[in-house]
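call fold(seq) -> tokens
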Amino acid sequence: MSRVRIAIRDLSKTFVQGPREVPAVSAVSFDVQDREFVAVVGPSGCGKSTILNMIGSLIAPTSGEILVDGTRVGARPAPQIGYVFQKDTVFPWRTVERNIALGLEYRGLGRAEVVARVKEAVELAGLEGFEEAFPATLSGGMRQRVALMRSLVVNPEILLMDEPFGALDTHTKLNLHAELLGLWGSRQQTVVFVTHDLSEAITLADRIVVMTRRPGRIKLVYDVKLPRPRDVIALRESAEYLREYGEIWHALGEEFQERLG
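ret:
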């Protein structure tokens, strides 16, 4: 029986801007099981990234609680968590291999182990030949691969991903979807993936949490029934994909319609 890795209970967050209070998230509760890939989707400003940042201890909840492996999340991030941010966040003064090695160096691993794990990560990401390249010479997709491998190389058990492919073109995004599914299939981390792209969520996730407009509440939790492994190209031509897209869009589209109305 699968165990709960992340438990979110009645979570709310209100930001204070001078005399004004801005409620971002309200009374959100859901669980993430071990080795599960959960995507969170919703209108812009609905608090998707805020939830992720609270799981990662980057900001504190106003009320409610988050448990990671049964321990309440506090001011310090849980050691089993890795984070991939919306921007690629690679350091421009470090080469590809030194960017990937950063977390390993912070953990004090020996030189031989660092070299071996970085070499494996470079191969997994298809970055051979670019080990000594600096980020300014790489494409956006390659920089995001570096950022992803920098998080994966420390072998996090739980991976938080905040719209990591949002700024990329469709072709690059689909390539990275395929790579991410391959890596997840072999390593089976628990993943919480925030995106504004419903197609991306269906392609990647086991379950999709659909949020309302701000303040974000859970409108729908949807179990994706598409079998794995998934071909990111052929998948979108299948009748099952189109059916699931339509079902989720019915709920998500209502939130956009309310905003426009």
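The mean pLDDT is 90.
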